[in-house]
Amino acid sequence: MDVLDPESDSVRTCTYVEEADELFGIVQKAVASKGQEAGDLLARFSTILVKYQEQGNLLDPHLEHIVEPLSDILRKFALQAEATKEINAEALRGTCQLLWTVITVRGYKNSVKFFPHEARDLEPVTCLLDWVHSQTAKTTITWPGTALHTVQAVPRQGQWFEADGVLLLWLSQLILIPFDLRTVDSLLGDVSSGPQQSPLVAKISSLAQEYLESAGSSRTMAALLMGRLLTRPDQATELSAFAEHALQSLQRQGANASFIVPGIAHTLAIIFKIGHRKILLPLVPRMWPAAAQLLTGSEAARSSLVRKLAVKLSQRLALMTLDRQGSTGGEDGREVGEEVEEAVGLLLTGLQDKDTVVRWSAAKGVGRLCGCLPQELGDEVVSSLPDLFMDSSADAAWHGGCLALAELARRGLLLPARLPQLSPLICRALCFDVRRGPHSVGSHVRDAAAYVCWALARAYSSEIMQSSLLALAPSLLVTACYDREVNCRRAASAAFQESVGRQGGVFPHGIDILTAADYFTLGTRTQAYLTVAPFIAQYPEYRRALADHLLEAKLQHWDRALRETAAQALAALVPTEPALFQGHFVDALLPLCLSPTLEVRHGATLGLAEVSLALDKVGQGLEDSRAAQVAGVVPAIEKARLYRGKGGEIMRSAVCRLIECTALAKLPLTMAQKKALHASLDENLKHPAAAIQSQAAVALCAFCKAYVSKASPEALARTTLKHLQGLKDANVAIRRGSAMALGALPSMLLLPHAEEVLQSLGRAAQKEEDAEDPDAESRMNAVRALAASAQTLYGEQHDPPTSHSAAASSKPSREPNDSSSQRPQGSSAKTAEIDTPMCVQSRLCCAVSATIAALDDYSIDNRGDVGSWVREASMTALPPLLKLMAAYSPNMRHASASQPSPPAQSLAISQEKPSAHKPPITSSAQHTNNENSLAEANGELQSAPQADNASATLADADAAIGDQISSADDGSPQDAQVPEQLVVAAVRGVVRQSVERIVRTREAALSSLKELLCMQPALPCIPARQSLEGVVSSSNPEHLATLSGLPTLVSLVHVEVLRQPLLEGMAASIGGLDGSLGSSISTALLSQCQGASQDRTPLRAVAQELLAIWPRHHDSSRMATPLLRTLAALLKPDNLAWLEGNCPHLVDAMLTAVDGELAGCKDVARLIAGADALTLLLACRPPHQERALCSLLGLMRGRFPRVRRHAAEQFYVHLLSWEASPTRKFTEAEQERCMNLLTETAWDGPLEAARPQCTAIADALHVQLPALKLREPKAVESSPAAAN
């Protein structure tokens, strides 16, 4: 059954077995293999059937076709056991497992009907059960120091409980044959000679009694078998013997009592359920004391199962003393026996048991007993049930009372005169909820109360139920709409539906309500609260009950989320009767806002906020006196110091919401109240909790629009400048809150300081270089605020400039009335200047450039990659920022109209060679030469048309663009290509993130990329738009971010302009800790490098691009090791041979890059990755081979034991496959000597012992190692004075 999260909208119920054909196929395979494949088929068989666990009735049409073929296999095993005792154990066990799965899902009563039930099967099945039982040996264990002996079952051939259960169940069906069992016993002689003990019966009884001492399903089936066997007419003698045995067993103490007592009690309960009254009545006086004692004994105290069976047994014994007319001994008018009175007392006590199964059994027992008692005595039992519904009673008593009422109502045993007394109790049970620590209990009580209403509707006519149902209807609908638990909402809805269907028109508007409040609409709490309940509240019969429940219960609930939803639900009811909420409810909420109980004051504050706003929306504002009281709630809360102690953060969030709703409703405030509310928001913006800061920022936006807009220009400026200054505060909480506030401020506060706001946020979004406390959350908030403030200043509410207005006028592009009258004195000229389209474009370009730079935030702290939060915020901010920038860029607007997707070759950013502006890798002459080698290797890529553009790094592009933007700010003409270059840089940065390590980040990148591609109007200048659209636009971002979707993204490596960011992102993933991710990406990359028809030309471009990336990340703690691992992934033997044959300078550059990363390195992981790369480079021809060998031997004589050992192991493995060649300088004997040295030396031992061996290996291979010398300190920039 496809039932998903009960709080989700996606709930689907099956109406038929979809996999019926597959089930039949599995059964046929098991039959064809004679059970040998049953074990292999079990997993899929169970998966299908468990799906219908809650709707097992759907399997009924197919049970015969499933059970009969499998039971036929079992029958053949039984005949085989009777004849030869040689059975395929695995086939038998697999077949029984399939059958037991069916029995578990559908129940044994429905499944056993399709088992063979011929008398001739009794002996074979008994033999088969005996054989299965023999597979379990019994071992007696004596506990040291005690006199205890335990019989423990030790399985010999796996678990056999499924076979035990199936065979015992089958025997319980066969034992019902309508013949004397002695007639089917082949071991018995002539039956006519006189009464004899049947060996077959003795065998069955012996096996069943042994299984009664086991645990689990075998004991249950054995009890069923013994109950049916002993109630046969021909087993009276055995019944008496078992009764004596049972009396002794029920009094047993010790370790084994917890197994035998439930089995015996269950057997007795079945016997007294199905046996003949005349035969069993004499046993009742003997059994009753044992049953009563069992319920109060030590075993019952430890086991809920024993208590349940004791309750069941006691009610069966009491029923045995009663006939259908309610008299004892079959004589009318005689008083009931003591057993019945004691049984009623035990059952009433069982209704208060702590376990549900015991209460449920006791409730059914009350119903059964009352059905057999005379009317007066039955009503006397009913009269004792209201005592369970006391305020001091535990939830177990309420639940048991509801179950008992439901059982009595279902049987029609509640007298109509009792209904008016019971209806208020049921209404209270429908709302039962008792706080217990950090949670509450009562959902089971409310569910049982709905069951009572359902039973009442089915059992009584509308004339009897009319008055009671009118009282129950509002409570049912309250539970259906507002209960916290989905099962209670649906139970109440089912009871209401049953009442409407069976009681006719007793419920007003019943049919209309049922169409809105059904099983599915009530499945989601939000929909039930905010959609279904307001619909029902339009009917006055139910409105007040719904509203009062929210006020009195849900606004004071222990669950914070429920209180917040309840406040919104209360506001949703306001349109139905505004006057009621305007008066009574506001007056009720105001004093509760200062309640000493946290839940009460929090819910009241939220409710007051939402109701005030809802009243304003319907045009029914608060009266002046009440509005003044609402305005004074926040100062009163602060005066009472309710922010302190437990729940202070919760109250701060509620107060922010109250201020927001006060501002949105435009309630009149005095100047003192405005200052107090503003100060409260400023204080909450400094709170370290992000949720409180976010709520305060939203409230600040509404507050400023409602009240601050009418303040003086100086006051407006102070508000903005205060938060600008907060961006530089040493307190990280203040920085976070100030960034949020700037993102939320309205345009009239931002416009006079637009340039400073955008520049400050752009700087705050960058990683702090010298900050004592760098904070990723501050940078994340700054990036979000940058996009929000730009949208506020220049968003859709303002008309974008036209080409005519941009050329002929310097007026602002927005409406002049918004800010000209509110600017501070002396700032109008400056504001007019900054609002020109050219300056707006420059400012937006700065914002976009800062957001792109935030894509390089890879900060790490003890929480992990916290920089990912900044990168994700940046990717979310880029689409709206780029859209704004395009709207204010004339060239981009024309490109969007005429050529939305220009060729990718014309979009690359002009940039110098990386080696021309990057500092050398190290200061030594050798490393400078290595840098030149890398530059020469890159020459081939840069000689191609526009190839240097494709290799430009994002950081270099940002630097070049920043210079152009700053020149425009200084007053010089701005480069018209800057916006186009920013689009390219942004797309390349997002593409890089789409293949990096974190799944969440990849999803954010792909969603951002899809938004950019689908933007309307189309965003021009996107590089390789068609290629990106073919990959991104047609796929789900969540799928592309998975391992199966990444190869599609890797295919973009063929696009020249996207190759560099893709390789940079892929390198980070290949070298990360996630092995499956690295393997997936490296495999996809190698596949793309292969090309068509074994053409490895793409390999050249990938290798060149990888070497071009390397100088930027030299000695980087984040990228150095991943780059080495990516290089090792590319250096497969075929790829390396092709590179050395077609572009040997690239191999030389790879060796140079590896040597540069390993020189002076102390990172063991990086050294090991370098050893792997050098080992692969040994496959080259001289002189590359000699260089790689020299570097590898250098690692083998380094100071890190783990690196030495790893390098030696890799070198030894390579020597094993090192083939002879004309260019090799050493002989096979020398190679053998090297291998011996590698295996005989403890490379992770003392360094003094490893270095001579390394020298000996170098001599044998004719390699000249450089002399060892002390490591020179790393070069740093120094002042001229120091150099002199």
Main β-sheet, spatial strand arrangement:
1-2
Low-confidence spans: pLDDT under 50, at least 5 residues? 1-12, 137-158, 325-333, 799-834, 899-955, 965-974, 1270-1284
Whole-Å distance between the termini? 83 Å
Structural class: mainly alpha
Largest sheet: 2 strands, antiparallel
- The tally of strands reads 4
What gross morphology would you assign? flat
Task: Please state the oligomeric state of the protein chains shown.
Answer: single chain
Strand fraction band?
under 5%
Organism: Apatococcus lobatus
Protein name: Tubulin-specific chaperone D
GO molecular function: beta-tubulin binding; GTPase activator activity
Biased composition (Polar residues): 802-811, 818-830
How would you describe what is shown here?
The protein has 65 helices and four strands. It is flat. 65% of the residues lie in helices and 2% in strands. With 1284 residues, the protein is an all-alpha fold. The strands form two sheets. A two-stranded antiparallel sheet has the order 1-2. Strands 3-4 form a two-stranded antiparallel sheet. The relative contact order is 0.02.
List keywords for this structure.
disordered N terminus; 1284 residues; 65 helices; mainly alpha; disordered C terminus; single chain; two-stranded antiparallel sheet; two-stranded antiparallel ribbon
Spell out the blueprint of helices and strands.
Layout: H1 20-32, H2 38-50, H3 60-83, H4 89-106, H5 108-111, H6 122-134, E1 136-142, E2 149-155, H7 161-174, H8 199-211, H9 217-230, H10 236-250, H11 257-274, H12 277-280, H13 284-296, H14 298-302, H15 304-320, H16 338-350, H17 356-372, H18 375-383, H19 395-410, H20 419-430, E3 434-436, E4 439-441, H21 443-459, H22 462-482, H23 486-503, H24 510-516, H25 525-537, H26 540-552, H27 560-572, H28 578-592, H29 598-617, H30 624-631, H31 633-639, H32 648-664, H33 671-685, H34 690-706, H35 713-726, H36 732-744, H37 747-750, H38 754-764, H39 776-794, H40 803-808, H41 828-834, H42 837-853, H43 867-887, H44 890-898, H45 914-917, H46 925-943, H47 947-951, H48 954-969, H49 978-993, H50 999-1013, H51 1025-1033, H52 1037-1040, H53 1046-1050, H54 1056-1070, H55 1075-1090, H56 1097-1109, H57 1120-1130, H58 1133-1142, H59 1144-1158, H60 1164-1177, H61 1184-1196, H62 1201-1216, H63 1228-1240, H64 1247-1260, H65 1280-1283
Antiparallel strand pairs: 1-2, 3-4
InterPro entries: ARM-like (IPR011989), ARM-type_fold (IPR016024), ARM_TBCD_2nd (IPR058033), TBCD (IPR033162), TBCD_C (IPR022577)
Biased composition (Polar residues): 802-811, 818-830
Organism: Apatococcus lobatus
